[in-house]
């Protein structure tokens, strides 16, 4: 199981890098081009797609044949993502807890909740699509 967690952590780190690039792309390209009101939800959709694409391309790396493993990987990624969002955001970036919690504000166009949902289901869905289950 430790081997699978190590592989899952490596895959998650690739997703984090993709998320960082997505954020830079949003701020440097999308916001100036289409404004923050449209850039934020579009960025959320792009990030959800990136998470699934990275997972689909690398799911064979996990190498499991049991459905529960892919479910646990998705839940593990959820814990890592939320931990990163809250702990990095607060202790490294210096955001207040109120600022951080705004990533769940769908009314302002933030689709992070959808990204989290895709993060959880991606390993299982990708494994099924690739024929591992």
Helix and strand topology:
Elements: H1 2-34, H2 36-58, H3 67-92, H4 97-101, H5 112-129
What attributes does this structure have?
single chain; 79% helix; mainly alpha; 133 residues
Structure overview:
The chain is mainly alpha-helical. It has one domain (2-128). Helices cover 79% and strands 0% of the residues. The protein has 5 helices and no strands. α2 runs parallel beside α5 (112-129). The longest helix is centred in the N-terminal third of the chain and has 33 residues, at 2-34. The two termini are 18 Å apart. The mean pLDDT is 96.
> In what range is the share of β-strand residues?
under 5%
End-to-end separation in angstroms reads 18 Å
Number of domains: 1
Number of helices: 5
Helix content: over 70%
| Poorly predicted spans | none
What is the chain-wise order of helices and strands? Answer: HHHHH
If you compute it from the alpha carbons, what radius of gyration comes out, rounded to the nearest whole angstrom?
Answer: 15 Å
Major sheet size, sense and barrel closure: none
Shape: globular
Overall mean pLDDT: 96
Structural class: mainly alpha
Number of strands: 0
């Amino acid at each position: 199981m430790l081997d699978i967690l190590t592989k899952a952590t490596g895959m998650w780190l690739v997703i984090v890098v993709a998320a960082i690039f997505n954020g830079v792309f949003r701020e440097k390209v999308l916001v100036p081009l289409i404004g923050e009101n449209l850039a934020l939800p579009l960025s959320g959709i792009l990030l959800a797609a990136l998470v699934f694409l990275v997972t689909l391309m690398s799911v064979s790396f996990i190498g499991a044949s049991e459905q529960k493993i892919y479910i646990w990987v998705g839940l593990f990624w959820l814990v890592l993502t939320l931990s990163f969002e809250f702990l990095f955001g607060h202790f490294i970036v210096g955001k207040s807890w109120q600022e951080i919690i705004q990533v769940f504000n769908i009314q302002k166009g933030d689709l992070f909740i959808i990204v989290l949902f895709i993060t959880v289901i991606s390993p299982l869905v990708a494994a099924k699509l690739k024929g591992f289950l």
